[in-house]
Amino acid sequence: MCNLFVNANSDLWKSKTKSLRISGFVTSIRMENVFWSALKEIAFRDKMTVNELISTLYSESLEAGHDEGNFTSFLRVCAIRYYSLMSAGEVSLSLDKPIFEHPATQILQREAERRREGLPVIAGKAS
């Protein structure tokens, strides 16, 4: 099992720092390449640049009342959720289908139901 992780391309866990402007302020974000790749794919699907995606995520998370004290961690979780939701069949594997076209309310409701039932929140379809 560990061979799948230990012998993966080491570029995945190398860090990269990007400077960008969020809400008029210049900042930098440092994450591993695997997270940047996920954000790049999400941005591509919604016809945005990575900087536009990050700015949108920042604005919408503030509007939702989130404390963005550790915004970089939030971005990492977004990347992991993206892959997990695809794995679970909740988000299309097709890069031609934008993320915003997926039924977020229904997906979140199914996650909440699984949580109430004590099941894994991100789970594949029941067989």
Question: How many separate domains make up the residues?
Answer: 1
Q: Give the strand tally.
A: 2
Note poorly predicted spans: none
| First-to-last CA distance | 24 Å
Task: Report Rg.
Answer: 16 Å
Shape: globular
The average pLDDT score comes to: 91
How would you sum up the major sheet? 2 strands, antiparallel
Amount of helix = 40-55%
Structural class: alpha+beta
How do the SSEs run, as a string of H and E?
HEEHHHH
CATH architecture classification name: Orthogonal Bundle
Briefly say what this structure is.
The chain is an alpha+beta fold and 127 residues long. The protein contains 5 helices and 2 strands. It has helices at 3-6, 33-45, 50-63, 71-87, 104-116; strands at residues 15-22, 25-32.
Can you walk me through this structure?
- The chain has 127 residues and is α+β, with helices and mostly antiparallel strands.
- The protein contains 5 helices and 2 strands.
- The chain has a single domain (13-116), classed as Ribbon-helix-helix fold.
- The chain has helices at 3-6, 33-45, 50-63, 71-87, 104-116; strands at 15-22, 25-32.
- It starts with a helix and ends in an 11-residue tail after the last helix.
Could you give the topology of this structure?
Elements: H1 3-6, E1 15-22, E2 25-32, H2 33-45, H3 50-63, H4 71-87, H5 104-116
Antiparallel strand pairs: 1-2
Helix pairs in contact: 2-3, 2-4
Features:
127 residues, alpha+beta, Ribbon-helix-helix fold, two-stranded antiparallel ribbon, 5 helices, 13% strand, globular
